[in-house]
Design goal:
By secondary structure, the chain is α/β, with parallel strands linked by helices. The chain folds into 2 domains: about 200 residues, TIM Barrel (Alpha-Beta Barrel); about 140 residues. The protein has 13 helices and 21 strands. β8, α2 and β9 form a beta-alpha-beta unit. α6 runs antiparallel to α8. It holds the Pfam family DUF6884. InterPro entries: DUF6884, TGT-like_sf. This is DUF6884 domain-containing protein. It comes from Nostoc sphaeroides CCNUC1.
Length: about 475
């Protein structure tokens, strides 16, 4: 499971334009690492993207006997639903109950019983899915006991839940999450009195039943932890630094309430739509072409979903600032060529190619050349001049070429890599969608610029970098 943000999917996450449905994930400039999908709703799932399938406990939080759509929620029911809705590699969450109301002990027992049954069913019926169980407790020490119990059952993906109700208690929540993470992952992290000070603000419930299962040592360095429902930039920055994943739906709630996000440094500020200036972000530019205005309220669902897409785009863009990404630059092998074999970086000598080359070499990052003949070329590789352009390829040939390019790039890059395209549309159109479907981030900094404007942009960027070096 990748670290980072998993937005929550709603019932109908799309905008409608000219009779067609456009999913909001197709509007985004960047894709999140994955999505969270609840069994409480039936929504269209993002294709070829990592999905966390949640049991929907927030929807039955007020029920002592958990039900969804008239069905009792337990390990057997959820495994059946996950078989219908999940794919190989997805995360499937064990049914759990929030510790609220009067019957806390019964809810605790339910959580532990379901966890024991669920992992056995997952191994038998969904061996290619990843089971995750959620840590609940009314004190930090109780949460640590639950974490130990779940590790003993064999879980290696643990969720931390039940903290949304006190989301404003940032220091308390972060203390709980940091302590659980440190104790689970580090063999030297004992549970000292200083680590459980939060018990004074989180009253402890009754003793933890163990259901007769042997308790394993509380240490698993490869365990992955996921935080449910906390996703403000302040939390997000801390979680990314700690190597956690997290989810949230604030972008939906604010959008439905008529609020638009604007970004300020590492913060997201909510402003009423009637006060919002016209936005020129990627999503809003696309929406404008479809005559959808996210600033409009009470004018139909389409404008509201546009606002939600805008909010999500800003959320993802803000969170990306917290994760320094290694970049791989891609340059189009086009324009004039030498008449004899040479290193690929020298073979193409047009002004545009050499400007892109200077720019990427200044970044001191890996870069490759995209070629209609050779697909992906190392700049140092010796190749012969050739006469082939993407315009000479048929539509089917271009799709096949894009698949070959994407496969070659995936082989040389981890999923944490960001691909930066300094290419024309034909060199990237199909490639970017394939990379994004495989979880890679893509960026096109000169997307809407003509050739002359691209040269001017590169020149300006190089001058700024040179000035920065001089200033330092």
């Amino acid at each position: 499971m990748k670290l980072g943000f998993y937005p929550v999917l709603g019932k109908s996450d799309f905008v409608r334009s000219k009779g067609k449905k456009i999913p909001i994930w197709q509007l985004l400039e960047y894709q999140p690492v994955g999505w969270l999908y609840s069994l409480a709703i039936k929504a269209e799932i993002v294709p070829d993207s990592p999905i966390v399938h949640d049991c929907g406990s927030f929807n039955y939080r007020d029920q002592d006997i958990p039900t969804l759509n008239g069905k009792y929620v337990d390990a057997y029911w959820s495994i059946h639903r996950y078989r219908e809705r999940s794919k190989v590699g997805d995360i499937i969450v064990c049914p759990d109950h929030l510790l609220v109301g009067e019957n806390i002990r019964e809810r605790q027992e339910y959580n532990l019983k379901q966890a024991e049954t669920f992992i056995q069913l997952a191994k038998s019926y969904l061996p290619n899915r990843i089971p995750l169980a959620v840590i609940h407790g009314q004190s930090l020490s109780e949460r640590l006991e639950v974490a130990k119990y779940l590790l003993g059952l064999g879980y290696r993906h643990l969720g931390i839940g039940g903290l949304v109700s006190q989301a404003r208690e940032y220091s308390i929540n972060l203390h709980i999450i940091k302590t659980i993470t440190q104790v689970v992952r580090s063999p030297k992290a004992g549970v000292s009195p200083s680590l459980i000070d939060s018990e004074r603000v989180l009253p402890k419930a009754g003793a933890m039943p163990t259901a007769g299962v042997a308790i394993a040592p509380l240490h698993e360095p490869n365990a992955h932890l996921h935080v449910f429902g906390l996703c403000s930039p302040q939390y997000a920055k801390a979680f990314i630094q700690m190597g956690l994943s997290f989810d949230g739906s604030t972008f939906i709630r604010e959008g439905l309430g008529g609020g638009m996000f604007v970004s300020h440094e590492e913060k997201l500020i909510r402003i009423p739509t009637h006060c919002a200036p016209k936005c020129n972000c990627h999503v809003c530019r696309v929406l404008n072409r479809h005559r959808i205005d996210p600033r409009l309220t009470n004018k139909g669902r389409t404008h509201t979903m546009g606002r939600i897409a805008h909010n999500l785009n800003l959320v993802i863009s803000t969170y990306r600032k917290f994760t320094p990404k290694e970049k791989i630059y891609l340059v189009a092998g086009c324009g004039k060529q030498l008449t004899y074999p040479a290193a690929a970086k020298d073979l193409y000598y047009s002004q545009h190619f050499q400007a892109c080359r200077r720019y990427v070499e200044e970044q001191e990052s890996r870069w490759y050349i995209l070629s209609p003949l050779h697909q992906v070329i190392n700049p140092e590789a010796i190749i012969k001049p050739y006469d082939k352009s993407p315009y000479s390829l048929s539509h089917q040939e271009r799709i096949l070429w894009a698949q070959q390019v994407a496969e070659s790039l995936i082989q040389v890059a981890s999923p944490e890599i960001e691909f930066v395209f300094l290419t024309g549309k034909l060199y990237r159109q199909e490639v970017t969608s394939i990379l994004q479907a495989n979880g890679y981030a893509t960026k096109v900094p000169m997307q809407h610029l003509a050739i002359g404007q691209q040269l001017a942009w590169i020149k300006k960027e190089l001058e700024q970098e040179k000035q920065l070096v001089l200033d330092i």
